[in-house]
Amino acid sequence: xxxxxxxxxxxxxxxxxxxxxxxxxxxxxxxxxxxxxxxxxxxxxxxxxxxxxxxxxxxxxxxxxxxxxxxxxxxxxxxxxxxxxxxxxxxxxxxxxxxxxxxxxxxxxxxxxxxxxxxxxxxxxxxxxxxxxxxxxxxxxxxxxxxxxxxxxxxxxxxxxxxxxxxxxx
Length: 170
Hints:
Blueprint: E1 3-4, H1 11-20, E2 25-26, H2 51-65, E3 68-74, H3 79-88, H4 93-100, E4 101-107, H5 115-120, E5 131-135, E6 141-144, H6 158-168
Parallel strand pairs: 1-2, 3-4
Antiparallel strand pairs: 3-5, 5-6
């Protein structure tokens, strides 16, 4: 028998009680508190940037610093792109990036801009974003994402980024 002391019933409690066949007294539960500082998406992908010029500048810098280049195709609207950036800035990923890589963000609009750049580096944007390619300091493609490996970053662990960076570091 259920005794409901409020007109507000928490469905999960009620369902648990039905499954367990035990009496439950539902109570009003305060909504979860929001974080003091809500997450605000970063502006990562510039719609006015010239990705060809950005990649050329990165190649010059990569040669001088003996680093590789990660081309990150995506858009600020992409939650998975934002999560990838968060993971890039966590330990040990940040140290790996700073030591071994330069990152060039390539804006793809809503999968309708800079597609020629993605095609040049063998990255099929239609498989999902963020989409990554890794270049050596001469511009040779060492890796291009083919099956949307990072398109579901929000359900992946930061360790998957660590594994990727360790695999492709110079």
